Amino acid sequence: MFNKDPKIVLNDKLLDMFLNGVKLKFDEFDGIYRVYDKNNSFIGLGVMDKKELKRDVII
């Protein structure tokens, strides 16, 4: 369903921050992103707004 959305892979530190609601800065376009851990496991969706990624739906 979300295969057309871009993908972001987070290392352990960034993933922990992301899961705890911290907005992460990236130089990417606004929109919905598929979020994966370093093992390429799907974590959920994030929303990029003004160069900040925030969590949206966590699986």
Keywords:
single chain; 59 residues; mainly beta; Archaeosine Trna-guanine Transglycosylase, Chain: A, domain 4; 14% helix; globular
Provide structural commentary.
The protein is mainly β and about 60 residues long. The chain contains one helix and five strands, in the order E-H-E-E-E-E. The protein has one helix at about 10-20; strands at about 5-10, 25, 30-35, 40-50, 50-59. It has a five-stranded mixed sheet with strand order 1-3-4-5-2. A hairpin with a 5-residue loop joins strand 3 and strand 4 (about 40-50). It is globular and about 25 Å long.
Shape: globular
Query: How big a fraction of the residues is strand?
Result: 35-45%
User: How are the strands ordered across the major sheet?
Assistant: 1-3-4-5-2
What is the CATH C level class, in words?
A: Mainly Beta
